[in-house]
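RECORD TYPE: inverse folding
INPUT: structure tokens
STRUCTURE:
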């Protein structure tokens, strides 16, 4: 699977630009994440690598980030565990339980209480 992005801001600013210049490849799954396929077992292996390796976690974050303002330069064990919890769970409640922050979870706690 390949994800492309269309630069709508540039299109608005430069109406005569070649339309093909406005489309860029963002990422290719599973290649960009070091996975052999998109099978659940390969995805689980990626999660294990992320949980155990700072470089794998940083690589994942930075591959998912299209802008310089969201790239990271470090990811400690808490960061890696939080990311793994988000990737391996499908519901907000499961993520809350996995991350272990409870209702004080800055990313998932309050939203969970409201929903």
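DESIGNED SEQUENCE:
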């Amino acid at each position: 699977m390949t994800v492309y992005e269309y630069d709508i801001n540039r299109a608005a600013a430069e109406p005569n630009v070649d339309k093909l210049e406005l489309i860029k490849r963002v990422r290719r799954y599973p290649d960009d994440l070091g996975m052999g396929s998109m099978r659940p077992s390969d995805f689980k292996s990626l999660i294990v690598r992320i949980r155990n390796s700072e470089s794998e976690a940083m690589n994942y974050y930075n591959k998912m980030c299209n802008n310089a303002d969201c790239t990271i330069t470090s990811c400690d064990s808490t960061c890696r565990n939080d990311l793994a919890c988000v990737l391996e769970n499908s519901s907000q409640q499961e993520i809350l339980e996995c991350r272990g922050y409870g209702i004080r979870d800055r990313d998932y706690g309050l939203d969970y209480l409201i929903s």
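NOTES: The longest helix spans residues 40-52.
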